[in-house]
Each structure stands twice: as C-alpha cells, then as structure tokens.
Design goal:
The protein has 328 residues and is an alpha+beta fold.
Length: 328
C-alpha cells in the first residue's frame, strides 16, 4: 500500500506544508508519459514516510490547476522538496537515479544525519555555516546569498573603513571576536550620519525579516574623538531599478519605516526587524536608507546585514509561489 497522499485541494496542500517538516511533492498530468518514475517514488514513500516529519504527496496538475500555476509547473514529472513550508529544490523530468538521489538527500536532511552535505547541496541551505546575530524565524531561511553583490551600491560611506561587500560577509564581526581587526570589516558613514544601501537580487524574493548588526566601539576604545552610532530611523524601499538620492528618499514614502531603540539590539549587537510580509512578497531589489543614528555623533556604523525570507526561481526563469500563505 502506497504511503503517498493524493492532494485534492490547495487548502489540503497548504495544511500539509504547515504540519509536516519535510514534504516531497510529485507533480504529474493525466498523460501516461508524464508519470515517469512514479513507482520508485511510491516505493520510497512507503519506506521513508514519517508522521508529521516526512510526507510524500502526489498532485495531478490537470485537476489542481491553482497549485500548478502557483508553483509554475510547466514540465512533468516534477518533484519539489519543501522544508518548513519553503521550497528548497525542484527537479523536473527526473530519471530514476536523480529521483533516488534527491529523496535520499531529503531524508538525510530530515533525520539530521548529513546536515553539512545537505547544506552544500542546496542553495537555500548554504547559509547554515554563516554567522548570524539572531535566530532565524521558523520556516524561513537566510537569503543574503541571493544578493547581486557586484551591483550593490553604498552611498556616503567612509572609504577608510569597509565597503558594501563587508555588510554581507558570512564571518563573525571582528568586534565580537576580541582584539583589533587587521582590516576594518564594518561600514561607517562619511560626511554625516546617513547611509544609502542599494541591494539587487538574483531572484524574486519574499522578505520576512531584516537583521542589522551594529557594534559601535565604547568611547574609551575608539581612536576618534567621536564614536559612531547605531542606526535609529531606517526607511526601506522595494523594487527600485537603481539607488536613490538622499533628498529623493527623504521626500518619498517608504515601503516600511523603522524606528529602533536600545531595547531592539541584542547582546550580539543585532536588531531583528520583522517586516510587513504582505508588502515584501515580490522583491527584486531593496534600498535601505539609514536616516539618522541613535545619539549625537555625525557617524553611523553597520557591521552586517542579513536578509531572511524565501528565494524563488532566478528572475529569468520565473518565481515559485507558496500556496495558502498569509500575511504577517
């Protein structure tokens, strides 16, 4: 007897994505040629399914057109690997060896027996080895690796410190490691306290959380007369084709405005900022405008920026959507 679950509605599929940590989805059509390695899939499902842990489902795209469209399924058979409701990987027109390899990796990931290899195999999990100043929200992943760093741009930064790329560095900030850094791995503003950061993405992103790390030195540790500040007021803008000017950004309504206070920063100097998820569903670029800092200095400091959410397909290939997702 097969352990696969036949999906009869988008609501049923959405519920399974929420209740089961791992979901493997097999998309097929009524055309017999589209069934591919269905027998292998069902055999693996019978062996590897675990209640509320690993679930195998079958979806007939002729009957479930809403799900087909939501996940942009254009070729069958297609296999999608979900973890915590998020698409990790998909394989289309898979051969039996490809399917076995994918499912084996899924099971190892679910049981925690090969976390490191699963991380290197999936673009969505490569960030597991990356330092973060705050925990990930459940069901979301670090999508900082989706940034097009070569096209990112930072305005009004002090060239004697780090540039835009240090903000996305996966290493632990030197300020938390003790001692002085051989190179300044942080950003400071230059002529005043404002910074303008333009971040384009390789794929269409759903953004859930912004994590900003800022570790200004203590006054007695700073070589300058004036220690830099943490950001206080931040404006976010989405889907701009290029960076904004400071005057332009000040006059423009942001996608979200943020006010930070001392209580928002944790022991690692990181502010974990939840975003209005409904406004950050189809993001191709993000502008972070640091309007002012929390103090009297004329400099603001940023050590790291991490972006948390979901990454879809590369933009030229279209985007994967998740069924039944609510706003937060």
């Amino acid at each position: 007897m097969s352990s696969t679950v036949t999906i009869s509605s988008p609501e049923q599929f959405s519920q399974l994505l929420q209740s089961s940590k791992i979901v493997m989805a097999y998309f097929f059509s009524s055309n017999p040629d589209s069934h591919g390695p269905a027998t292998v899939y069902q055999q693996l499902a019978g062996t590897l399914s675990k209640s509320d842990r690993v679930t195998f489902v079958e979806i007939n795209i002729d009957d479930q057109k809403d799900i087909k469209d939501a996940y942009n399924v254009t070729t069958t058979p297609a296999f999608f690997y979900f973890r915590d409701g998020v698409v990790v990987q998909k394989v289309e027109s898979a051969s039996k060896p490809q399917l076995r390899e994918l499912v084996t990796r899924v099971v190892r990931d679910a049981t925690g027996q090969a976390e490191a290899s699963a991380a290197s195999a999936s673009a969505s999990t490569t960030s597991q080895a990356t330092w973060r100043g705050a925990e990930l929200p459940r069901g979301y992943v670090d999508v900082t690796d989706q940034i097009e760093s070569q096209r990112s741009e930072l305005l009004n930064y002090d060239a004697s410190c780090g540039g835009v790329r240090v903000l996305f560095d996966g290493s632990k900030p030197s300020a938390l490691s003790g001692g002085k850094a051989s190179a300044k791995d942080w950003v400071e503003s230059d002529t005043d306290e404002q910074l303008m950061l333009y971040i384009p993405f390789q794929s269409v992103i759903k953004l859930h959380t912004l994590q900003i790390t800022s570790l200004p030195p203590q006054e007695d540790d700073d070589d300058d007369d004036e220690a830099p500040m943490r950001p206080r007021t931040i404006k976010l803008f989405t889907n701009k084709p290029h960076n904004l000017g400071f005057d332009e950004a000040e006059d423009m309504a942001g996608t979200q405005d943020i006010e930070l206070s001392e209580k928002d920063w944790n022991a690692d100097g990181t502010a974990n900022i939840p975003l209005r998820f409904v406004k950050f569903q189809k993001v191709t670029s993000l502008v972070i405008f640091v309007v002012d800092g929390d103090g009297e200095s004329e400099k603001v400091r940023l050590d790291r920026v991490r972006l948390i959410g979901e990454a879809g397909e590369k933009r030229e290939m279209g985007k994967l959507e998740k069924i039944g997702e609510g706003s937060e």
